[in-house]
């Protein structure tokens, strides 16, 4: 059985994961509006992965005989700047999620909940990948500057990203 403290922090994390999905969907809509279909695809795929992350937490709470307590999801920002500004916001948001996951890990240590600690390690690894993927796009945007042909090719590259169902892997 899961402790109330761990249950509460995991429920908070579910909310953060679903908010992340909303944020990425808002960014996807923005990129669609300005004609960057590849950037839109990248953020849409990201949104689907965030839903997966939330559902993995959801299932884990149930598996540990806890209670899922869904909370209201805040409305995401809906006005964005250029591609670099958007990806810098994405990077900042991913760092926020990483910090949140690290707090969950810290609480599992405080509560001596080794099962949840083992479980949350998957998220820690996932966040390293998330930050690296976003950093890669930021580096490319900065390298190309405002060159429209380069932006076009980067948009094509991001269009090739495919959604792969995320599941917890022990």
Structure description:
The protein has 170 residues and is an all-alpha fold. The protein has a single domain, classed as Ferritin, core subunit, four-helix bundle (Ferritin, Up-down Bundle). Helix content is 75%, strand content 0%. The protein has helices at residues 4-33, 37-63, 83-110, 114-144, 148-159. α1 runs antiparallel to α3 (83-110) and α2 (37-63) packs parallel to α5. The radius of gyration is 17 Å and the shape is elongated.
Task: Bin the strand percentage.
Answer: under 5%
Strand count, sense and barrel status of the largest sheet are: none
Strand segment tally: 0
Helical content class:
over 70%
**Rg from C-alpha positions?**
17 Å
**Strand and helix order:** HHHHH
What would you call the shape?
elongated
Helix count? 5
- Global mean pLDDT: 96
Distance between the termini: 19 Å
Summarize this structure briefly.
With 170 residues, the chain is mainly alpha-helical.
List the helices and strands and how they pair.
Elements: H1 4-33, H2 37-63, H3 83-110, H4 114-144, H5 148-159
Key features?
170 residues; 5 helices; single chain; Ferritin; mainly alpha
